[in-house]
Amino acid sequence: MKSNALYLFFKKPLKAGFSAFIILLIISQFIAYQKYLINENEEKKAINNQVNLIKEKLQSLVMYSYTATKTLAYIVERNGIPTDFDKIAIELLERNKYFDVVELVDGNGFITHVYPLKNNNVIGFNIITSATASSGALATIKRKDFFIAGPVNLRQGGVGMISRQPIFINGKFSGFSAVVTKLSTFFSDLNINTSIDNHFIYQLSRVNHKTGKEEFFLKNNVASFKNFAVPIEMAFGEWKLYVVPAKQPINTAIWFSLFGFLLTLIGSWSVWYFVGQSDRFEKRVNIKLHQQESQLKKIHETTSQRIKKSESSLNKAQQIAKLGSWEFDIEKSKLSWSKEMFRIFEKDPKYFKVTQHAFYKTIHPEDKEMVLKTFKDSLKNNKPYKIIYRLKFDDKKIKYVHEQCETFYDENKYPKKSFGTVQDITDRKKIEEVLKNSELLYRSLTSNAPVAIFNVNKQGDCTYVNEEWMKYSGMSFDEAMGKGWQNALHPNDKERVLQEWQETILNNREFKSELRFQDANGKTTWLVAKATKLLDANNNLYGYIGMASDITERINNEKELLNYKNNLEELVNLRTEELNEGKEALLNLLEDLNFQSQELEKEKVKAQSADLMKSAFLATMSHELRTPMNSIIGFTGILLKEYAGPLNQEQKKQLSMVKTSGEHLLGLINDVLDISKIEAGKLKVSIYPFNYLKTLQKTLDFLLPQALKKGLKLKTEISKINITLNSDERRVEQVLLNLLSNAIKFSSKGNITVKVDVFENTLVTQVIDQGIGISEKDLNKLFIPFIQLDSGLSRSHEGTGLGLAICKNLVEKLGGTIQATSKKEVGSNFTFKLPLE
């Protein structure tokens, strides 16, 4: 019955049409409302997409700016101001499309280098004294880390952002590396023209942390659009981004509503005529909804692609900087790595599971406890940390890494997440090791020098003195540093010497003076001192290096000669009085005076000759330490030959000791200079063919007296009558001389045999002795510079520990190899091989 009644109800056209009108009206308005919501969501998504895109680009700009300024600062800190600054700047600008200008600022705040110069003539501008730029610059120095300043009204026009990285050399602030990005360049990369864009109004602002006032980059007035402000998480202050629709269009849902109402009228009218035609309308609605769903899906796919592209750019930047990042969720105990972390730790992301245990397992065992303690202390004290530690790999390879970490806490001050970066600094460590070895070589050379050597900076503060300087002054190394060196000056010379030193600095010239040192016991030493300028790669003065030689003996001789002259004048006066007593006495006196005058003239010539020789010696003294040593040995030889007068046995003995010590020290200096040239790659060889056997025989003849003196026999076993070697004869002779001298030095009986063979175009030479031998554990120390074996040899035999190291480097420089075998108390065999061609 009910079905029949319902059927009868809808069968009536008016009631069916009215019912259809009510139903269709509800449906159409509901659809219009859904359309309204979809339009609103699309507009919000469009704004959010634009905001996210700009945020991603801005964060990329920060990352690239950090990498660029950090790289430039690293170059300056390690090598000083680069001479090829423009080339480096061009590479940075080509690699990073966001940058417009690259700058360098010195320690006083003046801009010294700019690229490109066109339209950027700001060289000489001081950013520290500038009212607009000083706050950002001072903040950067205080932070000792990267900082972005903005908005900045650029002197070359426009508004932009300046990224700065402070440069610290030896802990002292030395300037900035900086890149400038115009806001127009930034928006241009996004294909956005803020002046003619009809869709959105853009604005970027930064909140001044001192005044709390919002500083805008663009001229657009967004005072009435505060609800559109989107905060951007930056480590350099609070930033805000505005993306405001340019105009509020009429929501198309109104048309849907009107259309729905019209459709309702038509539908209800159609129902009134054609009951059952509503299915057609429902199908059209479903098609429309499907289209809207497709549009939403397309928008989602586009956004996902942009996110992947940004992640790819970040991974590329980390790879270039060898800088990986990690995140540790403390609550879940979950560790995640960036792609660069896997490359640094040499792990395959497909098979390596990132966990705390796996991470600590890769750390060098000697550093693991330190890393764990540092992380725990950071969590406990709520402080970020920076550490350097080593990674150890299965192939025994070692890497040095620099890690930074910061932990974030909840409102109850419980740690939630830790974020960190790890940078591979192995190459930097290798460079530091080379510099350290160079410094040790310089210290060793100057410590053994027979003259006082000192270094001062351009302010006149002492930075280094050697052992000879401390011996003359009676002061310790620490007492001489800074202005302390002035206390070594004799009180009567101090004011004059300081005045001469001040004039040297003001007039930019070399320092040269004769002065006295007086130690705490009152001992006075006369010195002749000379200091020359030290210049960097850009011819900028950064200090002085000087030498001082003891001339006390010369000064005493001059005083003695003056006393002798005064005594002679008294004698002349006495004889003159005696002349008045008689003619005969006068004649005798004239003869005596004539004879004494001749002797005096001879002594005067000798004194002048000695003085000229000393003056010439001092005049030719330079940084080359071999020159003074050769002079000492030469003059000692002259005295031993008694050209200057007879010597007693004790004098001959002592002068022979002086000559022997001088020759030993000269050999040390030659060895040190040779090894330093070899290590610096500056040793040159002259290749030409020569008779090898003739060179060998010449060396044996030279050493034969030493061997006979110790009762040793020199024997040769040569497989060929004539051997022509195409190599450097002087260096080959030096190798033979070193090996044979060592064999004689460490042998007290038996034979020393030299075997020469030729195998497959290779010359093989063996030096075999029957000396004290070398233990197996000490064999690997033989060819290391400055190393002498600890088995008593360093106490009973003279030597520098450089001879075998030089031999090894010379043989390898000539394309050959050298090795040694030995047995304790039996003897040693040193074999070196050289190519015949």
Helix amount? 40-55%
**What is the CATH architecture annotation of the largest domain?**
2-Layer Sandwich
Number of strands: 26
Number of domains: 5
CATH class of the largest domain: Alpha Beta
What oligomeric state do the depicted chains represent? single chain
Strand order of the largest sheet: 2-1-5-4-3
Rg for CA atoms: 45 Å
Q: From the 3D structure, determine the CATH topology of the largest domain.
A: Beta-Lactamase
| CATH homologous superfamily annotation of the largest domain | PAS domain
Strand content: 15-25%
Mean pLDDT value: 76
Distance between the terminal alpha carbons, to the nearest Å? 122 Å
Tags for this entry?
837 residues, alpha+beta, Beta-Lactamase, 5 domains, five-stranded antiparallel beta sheet, coiled coil, phosphoprotein, EC 2.7.13.3, Sensor_HK_Regulatory, two-component regulatory system
Provide structural commentary:
By secondary structure, the chain is an alpha+beta fold. It has five domains: 43-245, PAS domain (Beta-Lactamase), CATH 3.30.450.20; 321-424, PAS domain (Beta-Lactamase); 451-550, PAS domain (Beta-Lactamase, 2-Layer Sandwich), CATH 3.30.450; 554-677, no CATH class; 684-835, Heat Shock Protein 90. The chain is 49% helix and 23% strand. It contains 22 helices and 26 strands. Strands 2-1-5-4-3 form a five-stranded antiparallel beta sheet, sandwiched between helices. Strands 11-10-14-13-12 form a five-stranded antiparallel beta sheet, with helices on both faces. Helix 2 runs antiparallel to helix 6, helix 15 runs antiparallel to helix 16 and helix 20 packs antiparallel against helix 22. The chain starts with a helix and ends with a strand. 21% of the residues are buried.
